[in-house]
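Predict the 3D structure for this chain.
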Amino acid sequence: MTAWTPEHLAMDALWEAETAPVLWVQGWGDRLSLPFELVTELGSQTFIVLLLALVFWCVHAGTGARLFVAVVGSGVVNYLLKAVLFGARPYWFSPHVSARAVESSFGVPSGHAQSSTVLWGYLAVRSGRRGWIAAAAVLVALVCLSRVYLGVHFISDVLAGLLVGLAILWAVLRWEGRVLAWWRGLPTAAWVGCALAVCVLPCLAAALWQGLARPDWVAPADWTGAVPVDPAAASLTGLATVCGALLGGIVGFTVLHARGWYDAGGALTARAARFVLGVSVIVLIRVLDHLLLGGLTGSAEAVAEFAVYALIALWASLGAPETFLRSGLARRPDPLPTSPNGGSDTGATRE
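Done. Predicted structure below.
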């Protein structure tokens, strides 16, 4: 294999050893393809976007906002690691592995394993019920297994995603209250600067790393499977997408809180109307994105996706709630007393 460092040679040896277990799992038969394709969607970007919107718009605004920041922030970490680690996927590495799903970005760590751990783990822990925690663990395990069966991740990718996801979940559960209280005390210029730094610097760091440490990257000779054209660029675009979404969400939630927040409760018909209206605008933005910017590639595509997903998240976190309020589909919440850890509970435990 063409490798640049002893570390890359070690990774190739690991992937070589892990190919056999992947083939063994795929040997369970094609009859499992549809069930595993359905299970893997529980960690997909589309499903997560819809679930986050559902929770924020229709169930509990405070929980939805916190969950959004946790899951999308986890996505930033995941794509940053993908963009700098340059990990192969099983069907890229070996032509014997069946590509039962197709991915264009690098593989380490598994994004489905990581995002599922944060998403379902957060909801389960916040429910306070052991049964939900056990169910979340089973669900995450099935998502991880589906990624191996579909040929898009080695076992080490999945384990890395689980470990990173658990670390992020622990940090969020431990520190979110304190960070939120600190954030609400920042002046406008300070929180805008922090938001830009958190969301732009990862993109710049990854681009700089790829440009200086691994310019003109090509797939090593021993990656004899179906390697996509430019996984480095795809990984950067993925990073730009989640960074843009995080920026739009942070700005939207912060401004919405300053304007008095909103209540996601109400009649079932009002909740359903909010979801349909909100998702319709997101679909419209994506259609326009495809029509106007679909031909872009490389850094231009990354910049465009950053802007598009920032707009989508801004709509979801601010534009949609304000539209719901103005149209009578939602109302402002009643003021709550100051919380013990400082600051109003608005947007955190309201409803």
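The chain has one domain: 17-176+196-327.
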